[in-house]
Design brief:
The protein is mainly α and 206 residues long. Helices cover 57% and strands 5% of the residues.
């Protein structure tokens, strides 16, 4: 089977043509194949077909890849095929796509833009905050100085801060909620979040 039936500008073999034809509007298709069998080419051709069929209403297409190398490769292929990346077409890693969604949501509801902080950087910052024994955090009595230095405890604090930020709680709101619900770790979490935000804002100033 030739590639003419799908208006391809690349050379597709019969299996690629069948895969492309299976991707009709409104369907869910899994295209399986070993590395080098042409899955990326099929995906690029699918984007090309959708863009060409959009007419005066260009489609919005999100192409998600496993890593930045794959995203760069696919972005380059689509760009060569179409003379550039059309408006409404994005080729990103899953992490970058998720950040874009979070950023758009923050702008829509009037929150400040989220910041993408690497895991090791965030862990180092939280470790520095917890190591300050004079910070005056209202931890429960079982949270000793040794506990505060444990990686597992630090991970739990990071999870608490992340969830609070996802729910839109300010440090003051998290602390107040902890006092209202008699959850001392939430109280301490609100206090830690206040210091965390102050430090990250200070870093952004430079």
């Amino acid at each position: 089977m030739s590639s003419d039936s799908v208006d391809s500008i690349l050379t597709l073999d019969s299996s690629q043509v069948r895969a492309l034809e299976a991707c009709a509007g409104g369907t869910r298709v899994s295209v399986l194949g070993a590395p080098g069998t042409g899955k990326t080419t099929v995906l690029a051709e699918l984007v090309l077909r959708e863009v060409r069929s959009g007419g005066t209403h260009p489609p919005r297409i999100a192409v998600i890849t496993q890593d930045r190398r794959a995203a760069s490769e696919l972005r380059g292929l689509i760009s060569r095929m179409l003379g550039g990346i059309p408006t409404g077409v994005s080729v990103q890693t899953l992490t970058a796509f998720a950040f874009t969604v979070a950023q758009s949501y923050a702008q829509a509801v009037g929150r400040k833009n989220p910041e993408l902080i690497a895991g090791p950087d965030e862990d180092s910052l939280v470790a520095a905050i917890l190591s300050d024994v004079d910070a005056g955090f209202d931890f429960p009595t079982y949270v000793t100085e040794d506990v505060r230095l444990m990686p597992a405890f630090r991970a739990q604090i990071r999870d608490l801060l992340t969830r609070a930020q996802e729910l839109g709680y300010s440090p003051e709101q998290l602390e107040a909620l902890g006092r209202d619900k008699n959850e001392p770790m939430w109280v301490a979490g609100g206090q830690i979040l206040r210091v965390y935000e102050e430090l990250t804002e200070a870093q952004d100033a430079f």
